[in-house]
Design a protein that fits this description.
The complex is a heterotrimer of chains A (about 100), B (about 170) and C (about 700).
Chain A lengths: L5 H21 L3 H25 L4 H31 L13
Helix pairs in contact in A: 1-2, 2-3
Chain B lengths: L1 H21 L3 H21 L3 H25 L2 H6 L7 H25 L5 H9 L4 H11 L2 H22 L4
Chain C lengths: L5 H16 L6 H28 L7 E14 L11 E11 L1 H24 L6 H20 L3 H19 L6 H32 L4 H8 L7 H17 L8 H4 L5 H10 L3 H9 L1 H5 L2 H22 L5 H21 L3 H28 L17 H15 L5 H15 L5 H26 L7 H6 L5 H16 L13 H8 L2 H5 L5 H7 L14 H43 L1 H10 L1 H8 L4 H73 L6 H21 L1
Antiparallel strand pairs in C: 1-2
Classes of the chains: A mainly alpha (about 100), B mainly alpha (about 170), C mainly alpha (about 700).
Chain lengths: ~100, ~170, ~700
């Protein structure tokens, strides 16, 4: 296949992104949805780092550090939300959370 | 050599991801998520982003996974087991995502025809010449990117406060 | 003399005072004084004005005063065949003309009018509408003066209509009596028919000459050839008008019925003045009539026929006022016939003398009625002379005058008419013969009335006889004055053959024909253009020619004139004698005659059934037309109105339906559509976050595709 070029990394990140997207859209469990979301974040990070490697530029790595930080914060909030939801409805089935229906 | 490393790590990442998405048990999903994260960290290290890789392992595979496990523990597991597996919209979703990826792939392929990418040999020497990765990143972070750094720290504070407030019992 | 325009306006003052305040003026004396004073003032002014006129030389006796332009309306196009074929302005100026003809008229009107006012002051004593009577009477004098003093046909027409109105008001004066109201209506309507002819005549004149003023018209008339079509037409139309006002055939039927009015009204209006308006008009238009032999002949024939017919009807009437009425119609026929044969001035002279003795006769009849508690039937009277000597003598004078007994006024004027009927330019012996016959009949029926009423045995109701008395001074004095006038009034028209001795001197000083000549320019024309000379005549006015003709005619035919005069006098005497015989000597013979000729008697008594004929032909047809129109109105007009109402209601219903279905439907449909479409859109709001995420992914896909491929 020849040398590993940028396109390989990009394809990998795309594939991981796809897997994460499928997980978000398909699974009913709220926690699992959040986990799939993390996968998508990771895909983006791979992308950033790969491009940073191939440019070569350090900006990509720094960007990915920030991304990781933000992702962590977001997970914390998200899980806090899940706990609050669970306390109110006593369910983590996405189907249950349809108050916006109409 | 590089190729073997790349494909192996890729397989780990993608496999872990797939397993995570398709697992019936939440805890299993978490385990597979950890596997995937570690793989990603390894990938980062191969790309001469050692600092980022380590941070990845520490934050993701360490902190986030622990968070998830705590929450899973707080949620009623019996309920989880009784749940229906897939969402009603799984088919259109899968199709759509495949289309999207196909499109992105096409875009990348088309793009890469125009501008040739630099070869790894050139890169290695360049990056090595920049000194250790951590030092370099540290330098950049505290001079060039000081503002985002401070903002992110505030963000973390906000997130912490928010998470505490959201999760605590009503006073 | 330049103030003569005041003459018609002073009676108007009387009208205003009596009309507006008469109700409140309780005293009869005051009302009567106001009314009579205005007429007296007008009379005095007339005398002064005429005296002033007489001082002017003959050709200049023509004073016009224009007060102001009354109807200055726009221009009118004249007929193409007219000699004055330019644009004319239809202007009716309010102007008065004083010339010999109008001078005679105003003297007669105001003089006789004044005497009748005085009489009426006594006659109407005790009547409830006293002030109304005098208001109308003054109003009548006002209009009559306007009629004769006007300087244009427009002003004459105003007076014409005005006297017609006053005639209606006065005939129908007794508003309680239905017959009085009917008579008033009949007079007005028949007059109206005549007025139609009048209007057509006036308009024809306007379209031919471009003006309505006498001076302009008669000047221009000289340029027209004899027998011009327009002029003949105008004259014939005017004749219709005169027939209506002066009670000629076929429009005389109103005059006998007009006797429903109070007697002074009959005296003033239907004897002395209003009915003479037609004759005045023909005389005034003499210039036009003279140009049309056809019209002249028509006038003469109608006049003669009317005279004869009326006289025959008068023979058998029993109502004293009716007899006098038919006598008036007959005498008017005389006057009209005089004009028809070309002797306009003689016709006017007969107008004057007739005013005197006819007014006298009417007033005397009124006096008799007043004394006998309003009895009208002469067969219920008799030997009245015992109770009313003054009335008796004055009535006798009047009868003598009307019969044409020599020495009184009637003789002179009537004889001149008969002479001209024979020998005048348009005359013909047959006119003379008819005239003489009528004179005989007139004498007969007048004296029949005299003998039956005043002489013989009394046939009065005893109650009535007990109250019979002579009338008060206010009534008898005018009678006496008029009697005097009836005697001497005729000496201004002395026939040629009698101009001998003292009469010749009189003739030199007072000659009515000569006085009137400047006004009646038509006489000279008539003298020149006879029917026989139609081919040779050039229309040159020539007073000299007239004088020559006159002198020649006089010299050559004095003998003939004398003969004719004797014949007519004899006929008159014979009439008187026959009346005496039939009604005094052998009263039963009258009854026997009437039985023998009962058929004729009945026809005459029923006035030739003319009234019934008119009724069937015109009156009933008009009422039928009225009924038909009423049906039309009811069915068509009301039907249409109702139909429109229905249609409106139905269209309103349709409109409502439209509003309900279409308009409301549209609004409802819009609302319904909104609801339905929103229901579709609601399906998108599932409330599931993952659905929303799917849509987001879809959106990304679309955007990327767009970026790639577009």
């Amino acid at each position: 296949m020849g040398a590993i070029g940028l396109s390989h990394y990009l394809l990998l990140s795309a594939a991981l992104f796809a897997i994460g997207a499928i997980g978000v859209l398909v699974r009913r469990n709220v926690i699992l949805v959040l986990m799939s979301l993390e996968l998508m974040f990771n895909a983006a990070n791979i992308n950033l780092i790969a491009v940073s490697y191939f440019r070569p530029d350090l900006t990509g790595q720094i960007f990915s550090i920030f991304t990781i930080t933000v992702a962590a914060a977001e997970v914390a909030i998200g899980l806090g939300l899940v706990i609050a939801l669970f306390r109110n409805k006593d369910a983590i089935n996405v189907d249950e959370f349809n108050l916006l229906k109409g | 050599m590089d190729q073997i490393a790349f494909y192996t790590i890729s397989a780990i990442i993608l496999g872990g991801g797939l397993a995570m998405v398709s697992s019936r048990s939440l805890v299993h999903s978490v385990i597979w998520m950890v596997v995937s994260f570690v793989g990603v960290g390894a990938l980062f290290i191969t790309l001469s982003a050692e600092f980022v890789g380590v941070v990845q392992i520490m934050v993701y595979a360490g902190g986030i996974v622990v968070l998830f496990l705590f929450v899973i523990m707080l949620v009623n597991l019996d309920e989880v087991r009784r749940m229906e597996y897939l969402h009603r919209q799984w088919l259109p979703a899968v199709l759509l995502i495949c289309l999207l990826i196909a499109e992105l792939g096409f875009m990348m392929w088309a793009g890469s025809q125009d501008s040739p990418l630099p070869t790894p040999e050139q890169l290695d020497t360049t990056l090595r010449g920049m000194g250790g990765n951590t030092e370099t990143i540290g330098m950049a972070l505290y001079t060039q990117f000081i503002l985002p750094f401070e903002v992110v720290s505030v963000l973390l504070l906000v997130a912490m406060v928010g998470a505490i407030y959201l999760a605590k019992k009503h006073i | 003399m330049n103030l003569f325009w005041l003459i018609p306006l002073i009676p108007l003052v009387g009208v205003i005072v009596n009309g507006l305040f008469g109700r409140r003026i309780k005293s009869e004396k005051v009302i009567a004084t106001v009314a009579c004073a205005t007429i007296l003032t007008s009379f005095i002014l007339s005398v002064v004005a005429v005296a002033g006129l007489a001082q002017l030389p003959a050709e200049e006796r023509h004073v016009e005063i224009v007060l102001y332009d009354w109807i200055p309306s726009g221009v009118a196009h004249l007929s193409d065949g007219a000699l004055h074929a330019e644009l004319a302005v239809f202007n009716v100026p309010f102007g008065f003309l004083l010339d010999p003809l109008s001078a005679v008229m105003i003297l007669v009107i105001t003089g006789v009018g004044f005497l009748i006012h005085v009489y009426a002051a006594g006659y109407m004593h005790g009547d409830r509408g006293y002030y109304r009577f005098f208001t109308y009477l003054n109003l009548f004098i006002f209009f009559m003066l306007i009629l004769v003093l006007g300087n244009s046909y427009g002003l004459m027409f105003i007076g014409w209509e005005g006297v017609g109105l006053c005639s209606y008001l006065l005939i129908g004066y007794y508003i309680g009596k239905k017959s009085a109201g009917d008579a008033g209506k009949k007079a007005f309507i028949v007059n109206r028919i005549g007025d139609l002819g009048m209007i057509l005549g006036i308009l024809t004149i306007f379209f031919t000459f471009g003006s309505l003023e006498y001076s302009q018209i008669f000047e221009a008339a000289h340029e027209y050839p004899l027998g011009a079509g327009a002029i003949t037409a105008a004259c014939l139309f005017l004749l219709v008008g005169a027939a209506g006002k002066s009670a000629q055939i076929p429009l005389y039927v109103w005059l006998p019925d007009a006797m429903e009015g109070p007697t002074p009204v009959s005296a003033l209006i239907h004897a002395a003045t209003m009915v003479t308006a037609g004759v005045y008009m023909i005389a005034r238009s003499s210039a036009l009539f003279a140009l049309s032999p056809i019209a002249m002949t028509t006038v003469a024939i109608i006049g003669a026929a009317t005279a004869l017919m009326a006289a025959t009807i008068a023979l058998v009437q029993n109502d004293i006022k009716r007899v006098l009425a038919y006598s008036t119609v007959s005498q008017l026929g005389y006057m009209v016939r005089a004009c028809g044969v070309g002797a306009f001035s003689v016709g006017v002279s007969h107008l004057m003398t007739h005013a005197f003795f006819k007014a006298l006769l009417f007033l005397a009849a009124g006096s008799v009625m007043h004394a006998l508690s309003d009895e009208l039937d002469m067969w219920k009277m008799g030997n009245v002379k015992k109770y009313m000597p003054t009335t008796h003598w004055t009535f006798l004078v009047g009868c003598l005058a009307i019969a044409g007994v020599p020495g009184l006024s009637g003789f002179f004027s009537k004889d001149e008419i008969l002479w001209y009927a024979w020998s005048g330019p348009h005359g013909h012996p047959i006119f003379w013969a008819v005239g003489t016959l009528v004179a005989g009949l007139t004498a007969f029926y007048m004296f029949r009335m005299y003998f039956v009423v005043f002489q013989g045995e009394s046939r009065m109701d005893p109650e009535v006889e007990a109250h019979a008395h002579e009338s008060p001074k206010a009534m008898t004095v005018p009678l006496m004055v008029l009697a005097v006038l009836s005697v001497v009034g005729g000496y201004v028209v002395i026939p040629g053959v009698l101009r001998i001795g003292p009469l010749a001197a009189l003739h030199q000083r007072f000659n009515l024909v000569e006085w009137l000549a400047p006004s009646l320019g038509g006489e000279s024309h008539a003298a020149v253009a006879t029917t026989r000379d139609l081919l040779l005549a050039s229309a040159q006015p020539a007073i000299g020619l007239l004088q020559e003709a006159e002198v020649a005619a006089e010299e050559a035919s004095h003998g003939l004139e004398l003969l004719l005069m004797l014949t007519s006098s004899t006929v008159a005497m014979a009439g008187i004698g026959l009346a005496y015989f039939l009604y005094i000597k052998m009263p039963r013979r009258a009854d026997q005659l009437s039985e023998k000729f009962s058929g004729v008697h009945r026809v005459l008594w029923n006035k030739y059934y003319i009234d019934e004929l008119y009724d069937a032909l015109f009156v009933n047809r008009t009422m039928d037309a009225g009924d038909a129109l009423w049906v039309l109105d009811d069915a068509l007009v009301d039907g249409t109105v109702n139909g429109v109402g229905h249609a409106t209601k139905r269209s309103a219903a349709a409109s409502t339906a439209f509003d309900n279905m279409v308009v409301d439907g549209t609004v409802n449909a819009v609302g319904y559509e909104l609801t339905r479409s929103s229901r579709m859109l609601r399906a998108w709001q599932t409330g599931y976050v993952q659905n929303y995420a799917l849509i987001i992914a879809l959106g990304i896909f679309v955007l990327v595709s767009a970026y790639l491929f577009l």
